[in-house]
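Hey, I'm writing a tutorial for new members on how sequence and structure tokens pair up, and I'd like a real worked example in the thread rather than a made-up one. If someone can provide the structure for the chain below, I'll link this post from the tutorial.
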Amino acid sequence: MAIVKPTNTSVENFEGLHLYHGAISNCSMRVRMTLIEKGLDWTSHHLDLKKKENISDDYFGINPNGLVPTLVDNGVVHIESNDIINYLDETYATPSLRAENTAEMMEWLHLAAAIHVPACKPYVYAYKMAPKLIKTKAEQDKYDALQKNEELKSFHAKHAGGKDFATSDLDKAKAILGACFYKLDKTLEGRPWIMGDTFTLADISWIPLHFVLIGCGYPFEAYPNIVRWAASVREKPSFQEGVLKWCPDFAEV
């Protein structure tokens, strides 16, 4: 459970559930879907990532990585989207989004988290977002001063100033994504949801990756079971309200 002590202590006075999130953030999509699936009331604090509203002293004082989402539950700050959705499901137990085999479900959440920086972010930035998120020198200096996470700082340095991602980075990202989606496609063979007959946090963790990556041109036609599964998820109100309401079409971002 990723709980942090904020230096921006104003959030410690919050009552109820508050979510700092970005419309186009796949990690934010997970949390919005979970909140909606569980019928929870929450206060929205939207940050426009294209305007770099997350790069501020105030926000880094809430989330030390400067990332979205951040959940504040009665003054307690939670970061990391897969930890947040698991926390929500454990804390607000009804309706449950857990599988009978919780260990296997958590493996899917951990895998989605593990490939975020080495695979998903490079692909999305290289094919879609890097030209839209170029920082001015002042913005880059501000980010470098605030960001203490060396993995994130190294990643963003690779496209700073409009630089292209190295071919080796993209090849690595594609290889990781290919292996993961092969595994997911095989898992979905003959079953409606990742864990079988029940829609769970595993589906919520992975569907935003599909949505964002297909908007970047990722070739999902090679994975027919994923295509079928994604079409089913898109019919759910939580996807329509938690994803499409905020980002109708990632290809148009």
